[in-house]
Amino acid sequence: MDISFNVTNIQIETPxxxxxxxxxxxxxxxxxYASVPGVGEGAGWPTHASIEETREILATFLEKKxxxxxxxxxxxxxxxxxxxxxxxxxxNETYKHLKAKEIGYVVAKPCWGQGLATEAVQAVICxxxxxxxxxxxGIAHFAENIGSxxxxxxxxxxxxxxxxxxxxxxxxxxxxxxxxxxxx
Length: 184
What we know:
- The protein is built from four helices and eight strands, in the order E-E-H-H-E-E-E-H-E-H-E-E.
- By secondary structure, the chain is α+β, with helices and mostly antiparallel strands.
- It has one domain (12-182): Gcn5-related N-acetyltransferase (GNAT) (Aminopeptidase, 3-Layer(aba) Sandwich).
- Strands 1-2-3-4-5-6-8-7 form an eight-stranded mixed β-sheet, sandwiched between helices.
- Strand 5 (100-107), helix 3 (116-131) and strand 6 (136-142) form a beta-alpha-beta unit.
- The longest helix is centred in the C-terminal third of the chain and has 16 residues, at 116-131.
- It starts with 11 loop residues before the first strand and ends with a strand.
- 34% of the residues are buried.
């Protein structure tokens, strides 16, 4: 069961990150990581070809209000994003009764392997269970995206199923591996 969610007045702090709403002033940082080949493709979107393309996508983030900017405190810049959106769990007979959101995340390539996505996801899980009254979180990732699989495992998610995802932006089908974390 999906619930509405809005990041407008939310800030979540971790030891290394500040998760906060995107701002127009984040454009250069957003473009810096989204224009690197290999970053977006793992999440189903192509490398940003121009800063104008990034500006349009940033405008949708600001309008939808479901995306956190992952601000790296030491580097003083946005190095990724994390969003909460409708979950695959709402289409699954076993889990559709649960109040759930799906977590999606992208991290700048130079930050891969540093545990930043795990740190952000863990913080959002705590916030969602404690403040939003969520009962579960879903994560889905492409089968070949080992980094996202490791984040899910480190955060306590369990494998549920593999389905198919068609990325309209990439015009490609992917095996979509789905995990769940249920509040205990």
